[in-house]
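Note to self: user wants both folds in one dump. Writing first protein now.
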Amino acid sequence: MRADEVTKGPVLETRGLTKEFCGFTAVDNVNLQVQEGHIHALIGPNGAGKTTVFNLLTKFLPPTRGEILYRGQPITSKKSNEIAQLGLVRSFQISAVFAHMTALENVRVALQRQLGTSFHFWKSEKTLDHLNDRALALLDEVGLREYADTLTVEMPYGRKRALEVATTLALDPSMMLLDEPTQGMGAEDVDRIVALIKRVSQGRTVLMVEHNLSVVSRLCDRITVLARGAVLAEGDYDTVSRNPLVREAYMGSEAAEEAAV
């Protein structure tokens, strides 16, 4: 249990969340509770429905049935931009920064969005100078101050993902949804991103989809395992990793039996 955990109701909750596509059930009656101050992971084999759940939570997809609540208030009918304004902000599995802008400019664009001025691209760059101090502070927070004037396309992949975290922080989230934050990274970049998530999660709640179980074991307070769109198991890492149903979902029944011996 984290020292900054607030023992109240869940900050994010789903009740009977279901998504069907032409008769196929991608998300099946998912009841999820994310506690304030936790880093909570959604894991599962390929096709388990993890990213679809993220799309439902952030309203990129409408649910077929079920309810989503944020801080006790229903948000099922709200639009994605309204969700973000409430402090529930998502980063994406594929880096969503502008390749031919510098790191500083990318963060400044995110800050413009937060201030409601994101469409003022025709204005003189000097009119945005008042955002520089905050943008540089955010770059410093994610360890990218030295990359401030570097075009994003020229940055190493792991640094681009860190920049994406900075642009997410620019929206001042109270809860961050991170979709595969370490996907495609080497060990050194993974370690850097794990440290970064630990740092930026202070005072925030994080829900993350993550395929790297080593990352999950190092970061997460609680884990929800999905299989075929439904919740298979839930608990801390030790509890979940010893669950024979989870082993079978990841490795197959025979391998799971051998691993349990």
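First done. Writing the second protein, which came from a different request thread.
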Amino acid sequence: MTAVAIIGGGKLGEALLSGLVAAGRQPSSLRLSESDEKRAKALGEQFGIRTGSVPEVAEGSDVIVIAVKPSDVDAVLRELVVPLRDSAVDQLVVSFAAGVPIAQYEAGLPAGTPVVRLMSNTPIRARQAMTAAAPGRLAREEHLALTAELLEPLGDLVVVDERHLNAVTAVAGSGPAYVYLLAEAMIDAAVSVGLEHRLARQMVRQTVIGAAALLSEEGAVAQDLRSEVTSPGGTTAAALVELERKGLRAAVIDAVHAATARSAELGKPKNPS
């Protein structure tokens, strides 16, 4: 089985471990490096995996997953230089660090190291992630196959050019927050028309889950599903008229454009102070 080293034991690292183990991956194939010793020990015991320093877990691993904050990436790359340089096998580096371009990895790692940059979202914790993979110039088909082996048990995976990752961030990365905001508004509205808060939460939660289930069916189209609910002159039609009149669609489009621009801004090289 492919040996995987995860560098970073924060929420993302823990979600990856949890999802991979739940998907049937053997704990013996997983290693973790986390700078917080207490955190590393707790996760090691929870999942039954080996923990160690970055060079220790990288040695002998087929895939090295970088799951640290963008500001910590350069330090991790420095620690990876020796084990990658001395490795007798081809090792793939994949990274979830937002806004860090592939060129930065390729410049900081030994020549010839294949890199795949990833953008995912928080539903990875529920094995329902939407993840996009952008291959570097040295990443070949077998490296994308390794990436798929690692991530497909955790949700959907698509391959995109790196230039599209800012848009992916705005749609998939930030997207769950848009859904949660809509859910919040629906709960507030339910309470305002007389429903008890506990009941409102239950109804909205299950409505979102049920709608998502229908949308996930083969060939489902959002516009068609909306039309199925909307009878001419009915309650849904009245509600949708108000949402359109208040600019919901335009607000969502503007929000995605703003998130895309902000992602591009965050990914620009910082001027030295």
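Dump finished. Worth passing along: The mean pLDDT is 94.
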